[in-house]
Every structure is written in C-alpha cells, then in structure tokens.
User: Which sequence fits this backbone?
C-alpha cells in the first residue's frame, strides 16, 4: 500500500497478561502504523491474575522488545471505557487511531484516501466461534475531545457523536479469543454481560439501544 507521509497512524493494543497473543498483534500492524502503543492493565470487576493489576507474564517486556510503547497503570482501571480513553488524546500528533485487543490481528491494511471521522472494520471470530463475525468502530480520526462514552463503539468528540463512514472492505480484524482457556473466556463473558447491563440505561438515554 502506498503510504501518504502527511497521515500519521497510531495502533493501540489493549492487553492484560497476553504473552501468548501480544507478539502477533504487534506484528500485524507493523508497517501500517507509525507508532504502536500497548495499554496494559486490568479493569474493575474482572478478576486479577496473580493478584496484580499489571501484567506479570512477560507481556510488557515482550511488547517493548517488538518496539511498542507501553502504558502501565498505577491502579486498576475503573472500567474498559477508562482504559480505552487513556490513549484517545487530541494533543497526540497522529491523524488516525487503529484500535485492537491483544487477541486480535489486523489482516490487510486500510487503504487511503479516507475522509470520514471513523470507520467500521469487520471482526472475524469470537470467544466461542471462529467463524462468527461482527463489525466494530476501530479506525478513528483524531479530533478534539475524542473519547468513548461506552465501550461498545460509542465515540464522541467536540462535534458530537462520531458516526461511522462505512465499513472498510480491504482489511479485517481476526479475533483469536476462541484459542484462550475456557476459564478465562467464561470470566470475560460474565464481565461483558455485566458491563452491557450497566450500559443499557445510558444507551436508552441516547436512543441507541
């Protein structure tokens, strides 16, 4: 893909004890991203591993070995929304953010020119089924006040709700969570259901339920 020098791109990867996945996530965005940041740490409500809110399995060291910057928390994140918002900083120099979890891989690269504020990317696979798919608002232009209101794809900036400009067709995100241990997937499912229940009143208020 020809690279446009005036567009700076940041890949952000969320991780917590992801030694089996973090290298693949970083390698999948190298060559596309000008800069890679791994945001480490647990969030409130999800059981701590080894009684520590930071990764203890070598994830941090491995991410740095592959050239990523690592944001290490000083406490447990309040929730996944706070964890995601830590890297959506309008003062950052990058023009675009690509958002991944450590158990995801970017397959193909988003082509340019892209003029909208945000784009969906197809996500293949789930914690239970490698053939399932959905879409996520994962490629976002850096704008003033950009932040998540809720973890499930609801972004706003100083101009209001960040609407999707469509779904990118030349790349997908492969979700490898089905390769995790059954116990960790069970815990994530419990947390996800609770978080969704907590979001529902806000979604109704915003008329997006």
Assistant:
């Amino acid at each position: 893909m020809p690279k446009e020098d005036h567009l700076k791109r940041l890949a952000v990867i969320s991780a917590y004890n992801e030694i089996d996945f973090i290298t693949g996530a970083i390698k999948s965005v190298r060559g596309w991203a000008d800069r890679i940041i791994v945001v480490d740490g647990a969030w409130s409500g999800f059981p701590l591993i080894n009684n520590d809110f930071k990764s203890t399995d070598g994830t941090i060291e491995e991410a740095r070995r592959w050239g990523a910057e690592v944001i290490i928390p000083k406490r447990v994140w309040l929730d996944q929304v706070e964890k995601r918002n830590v890297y959506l900083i309008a003062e950052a120099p990058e023009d675009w953010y690509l958002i991944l979890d450590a158990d995801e891989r970017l397959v193909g690269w988003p082509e340019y020119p892209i003029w909208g504020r945000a784009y969906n990317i197809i996500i293949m696979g789930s914690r239970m089924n490698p053939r399932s798919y959905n879409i996520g608002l994962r490629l976002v232009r850096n704008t003033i006040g950009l932040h998540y209101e809720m973890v499930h794809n609801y972004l706003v900036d100083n101009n209001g709700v960040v609407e999707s400009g469509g779904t990118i067709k030349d790349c997908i995100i492969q979700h490898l969570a089905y390769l995790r241990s059954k116990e960790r997937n069970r815990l994530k499912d419990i947390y996800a259901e609770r978080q969704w229940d907590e979001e529902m009143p806000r979604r109704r208020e915003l008329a997006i339920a």
